[in-house]
Design goal:
The chain is built from 25 helices and 11 strands. By secondary structure, it is of the alpha/beta class.
Length: 638
């Protein structure tokens, strides 16, 4: 295999300034060339109009300089004619004094990629390609990147020399060699002791059978005792969760301290991942909504992670006009198909120091990323995650969407901010999340097998002693307004809560030590308590029969006073729940009649149906992601 010879770069100095020429040269070219010190050989490319001025300006704003800016500008020309672009790239390689690597030179050495790191190759735009004698040829899209990483390359490989390779071709070469290994790694990023991938449904089934055999004699001889036991359990869960709600509500009565004033000298690059699957109806709207973000386009890196075999969504995105800040990353097929696996794989392709996550149907506020970046800079390094507020843009479509809006208003505007203020564990939402990338990598990213990867990650953040804070910026999304789809979505969430609790309770003593007594209790009330409440809620509903004059089995077994106390606890809980929902609704300023709060009881009954579906799936298909279909709302904010 022969490499195009590497020629020494032209060391002749370029002019200090460029005067506009009378032939109609692009004025942007003159301006940016003066500001960035681009050498005259490169300016020849601009004058020949092989690089558009606006693309160059975008590359310069991303922090690129000199020939690296030209390389990025050429790479960004998605609609350029292939033959013309190749000629321009070869011209650029010659101007940089480099040989040009193409596919004709054969594949790179995978051992060299492994030594440098496939992820580093993708994020840095640089790849050790082949060793020839004692010299390692390094494929790069810019001599600046090669110079910056030169000491590290030399320490790893000894003598090195650059060869020019377009950034897109470089990425493709890395993925051809190490894409399969990267997708396997995306499924096992979390240490096995903290991951649910070692969950054994057969073992769970065996435990349930043993428990059933143990309780069978009680059921046969004293069934009322069993009824009393489970009723007390669900009442305790209900009371504990309600106590947590009240504590969170009271915590918010104290005004939150203002953020300290900070000056950000240079805004960071922020990468945003949107995992898509079967989203043909919403792809165009998603792109239009994300375009409204007012963060500088050259500092915004939007990665649309699409399953490789989802040809319909990929085709829909191909028909769309993606801005320079957006790109599609196909996610190869693996052993599971979940959102967290797609996020893990997409993270390898991100270039930002802060990572955000949105859902396909999201419509974030325009200044949201600015607010997140400012909040990170104003807080200490122990704040590694920021959660935004979620609300709905179709709240009045039907009864279900109204109840969903009421529930979310209480959850995101009262409960989560309150428990964050109390210093408890924050179970993250699946969207409008922003992370410090370094901390996210150190945590092991997302658990690819957990269907509520957000809640799990929130607990792992707390276990490391780090904090999550709630930022008062809103993302609007689509309320699930069809009963079947709602039950499917809620069953996935409840199944994930079950899985998350079982995973972190493998070693309760260690969890206690890492969280502390208060936060440990908070996890039990929020995660275990909500699951227990949803599963056993029919036992609470049975109290209503006594209000209609029918005898309740527990009234005779427990005595009238104890039974009345239980019944009073149930009624008080229902009233507090409605008050909590009303307070959240007022904060959200949604125009929903408060009388709809009276219909929350049948809405909560759907959660019980979803909980039993989740319990069944914990045995039969624990890692299956029951996909929520989007784009069903009549209201289109695009």
């Amino acid at each position: 295999m022969t490499v195009i010879p590497l020629r020494p770069p032209d060391k002749s100095p370029g002019p200090k300034s460029i005067s506009p020429d009378s032939s109609g040269q692009d004025p942007i070219v003159s301006a940016v060339a003066q500001l960035s010190g681009i050498p005259m050989p490169t300016v020849d490319l601009l004058r020949s109009r092989q690089v558009p001025g606006h693309a160059l300006l975008s590359a310069l704003r991303r922090g690129a300089r000199g020939d690296q800016a030209i390389s990025q500008a050429l790479t960004d020309r998605a609609k350029a004619e292939t033959s013309g672009e190749v000629r321009a790239l070869r011209n650029l390689a010659e101007r940089q004094g480099l040989g040009a690597l193409t596919q004709a030179h054969g594949p790179p050495d995978p051992a060299l990629i492994d030594a440098f790191g496939a992820t580093t190759c993708l994020t840095e735009g640089l790849m050790p390609w082949r060793r020839i004698a004692d010299l390692t040829i390094v494929a790069t899209s810019s001599v600046e990147a090669f110079a910056r990483l030169g000491p590290r390359l030399t320490a790893l490989f000894g003598p090195v020399a650059p060869a020019f390779c377009p950034e897109d071709d470089l990425r493709a070469a890395v993925l051809r060699q190490r894409g399969a290994a990267m997708i396997r790694a995306a499924e096992t990023t979390v240490p096995s002791g903290l991951s649910c991938r070692t969950y054994d449904p057969a073992r769970t089934m065996g435990f349930l059978c043993l428990a059933a055999l143990t309780l069978a004699p009680v059921l046969l001889w004293r069934p009322v005792w069993l009824l009393a036991l489970f009723t007390l359990l669900v009442v305790a869960a209900m009371a504990g969760f309600m106590g947590l709600r009240l504590a969170a509500w009271l915590a918010l009565r104290k005004p939150e301290p203002d953020l300290p004033q900070v000056t950000i000298v240079r805004l960071p690059v922020v990468s945003v991942i949107v995992a898509l699957y079967g989203e043909t109806d919403i792809a165009q709207r998603l792109i239009k909504r994300l375009k409204t973000l007012d963060y500088p386009e050259d500092l915004l890196d939007v990665v649309l992670a699409v399953e490789e075999d989802d040809h319909a969504t990929r085709a829909a995105l191909a028909r769309a006009e993606l801005p320079l800040s957006m790109r599609v990353v196909p996610v190869p097929v693996g052993t599971v198909r979940t959102k967290p696996r797609a996020l893990n794989y997409a993270l390898d392709h991100c270039r930002g120091s802060f990572i955000g996550v949105y859902d396909a149907e999201d419509a974030p506020e325009a200044d949201q990323i600015h607010r997140m970046v400012t909040h990170f800079h104003a807080r200490g390094s122990d704040v590694v995650c920021l959660q935004g507020i979620l609300d709905y843009y179709n709240p009045r479509q039907n009864w279900l969407s109204r109840c969903f809006t009421i529930e979310y208003a209480a959850w995101f505007r009262l409960l989560l901010p309150g428990i964050a203020r109390l210093g408890l564990v924050v179970p993250l939402g699946g969207t409008t999340l922003f992370f410090r990338r370094a901390a996210l990598e150190e945590l092991g990213r997302w658990d690819a097998h957990n269907v509520t990867e957000d809640c799990d990650l929130g607990i792992r953040i707390a276990r490391r002693g780090w904090r999550t804070e709630i930022v008062q910026t809103t993302t609007y999304e689509e309320a699930n307004c069809h009963p079947r789809a709602w039950v499917k979505q809620r069953s996935r969430w409840i199944k994930g809560f079950m899985m998350t609790w079982l995973t972190h309770m493998r070693n309760p003593r260690r969890l206690w030590q890492e969280l502390g007594a208060t936060r440990f209790l908070g996890v039990q009330l929020l995660v275990f308590g909500s699951v227990c409440h949803a599963l056993l809620a029919p036992l609470l509903w049975s109290f209503w029969i006594s209000f209609f004059g029918f005898p309740h089995p527990l009234a005779l077994a427990m005595g009238p006073l104890a039974f009345r106390l239980l019944g009073a606890a149930f009624v008080i809980s229902e009233c507090l729940g409605m008050a909590f929902g009303l307070a959240g609704l007022l904060l959200a300023r949604q125009k929903i009649n408060p009388l709809w709060l009276l219909t929350m009881a049948p809405y909560n009954a759907l959660a019980t149906l979803a909980a039993w579906k989740a319990a069944y799936e914990m045995i039969m298909r624990p890692f299956w992601w029951d996909k929520t279909r989007h784009g069903l709302s009549r209201e289109n904010t695009a």
